[in-house]
Design a protein that fits this description.
Elements lengths: L13 H13 L2 E2 H8 L3 H13 L3 E5 L7 E5 L1 H7 L3 H4 L3
Antiparallel strand pairs: 1-3, 2-3
Length: about 90
């Protein structure tokens, strides 16, 4: 799966899916925040974020409160695709 062209959220391990859901519910978080919310180890969160970044679901940005950390957030167009477009159909 790691070498396929069309890897998606469904192909990722459960830890990556959990990190995705944590970001979906909480918005932008640092890696430390994701570790606290998900109760996964820091190493597992790092691996999950790497996998999510590789398929373009998560964006990494500078955390201005502490430049040593990064802020992770879901990429908006990818979020709509991962939800199956449910937000657009049910917004009425």
């Amino acid at each position: 799966m790691a070498g396929t062209e069309e890897e998606s959220l469904d192909d990722l391990p459960p830890s990556a899916k959990l990190v995705y859901k944590v970001l979906e519910y909480n918005g932008s978080l640092t890696q430390k925040g994701i570790v606290e919310e998900s109760m996964l180890s820091a190493r597992t969160v790092r691996y999950a974020l790497e996998r999510l970044e590789n398929i373009g679901i998560v964006d990494e940005d500078v955390y201005f409160a502490d430049a040593r950390q990064n802020l992770y957030q879901l990429d908006a167009p990818q979020r709509a695709e991962a939800d199956g477009g449910q937000e657009a159909c049910c917004a009425e």
